[in-house]
Amino acid sequence: LGKGVGVPVKLLHESEGHVVTVELKTGETYRGQLVESEDNWNCQMTDVTHTGRDGKESRMEHVYIRGSKVRMMIIPDMLKHAPMFKRFDPKFDPK
After folding, report:
1. Which structural domain range is residue 20 located in?
2. CA end-to-end span of the chain, whole Å?
3. How far is CA 86 from CA 74, 80, 82, 93, 94, in A?
4. Residue 72 domain-assigned?
5. How many domains would you assign to the chain?
6. pLDDT at 1
7. pTM above 0.85, yes or no
8. Residues 59-84 pLDDT 10s
């Protein structure tokens, strides 16, 4: 991919404006609208439901998550058709 950002980071940026679920390395999850993301996976989210490791849920209006704390992120299913995946598709012929 050269010197640019990789596919996972591009996908993260494509997820902006959509509802995502972020799981932290601590086991906590945050589900809400992704407002902004950075190449280092720092994320701003609004209208968030936080689920603790004990399963207790709480609502938060705004959350900022440090990228180094992210274990995984669940993004909208519709993004599997994003143009960045075309070059990995064997049916895709750029010629």
Report:
1. 7-88
2. 19
3. 21, 10, 8, 9, 9
4. yes
5. 1
6. 40
7. no
8. 999 999 999 999 999 988 877 777 76
Beta carbons of 65 and 40 less than 8 angstroms apart: no
Exposure string (b/e) for 38-68, b if CB count within 10 Å is 16 or more? eeebebbbeebebbeeeeeeeeeeebebeee
Q: What is the DSSP letter of 90?
A: T
- For 2-63, give the DSSP string: TTS--HHHHHHHHTTTSEEEEEETTS-EEEEEEEEE-TT--EEEEEEEEE-TTS-EEEEEEE
Q: How many other CB atoms sit within 10 Å of the CB of residue 11?
A: 18
The residue behind tokens 């960045």 is 84
Structure tokens at 8: 């996972």
Residue with tokens 């704390």: 69
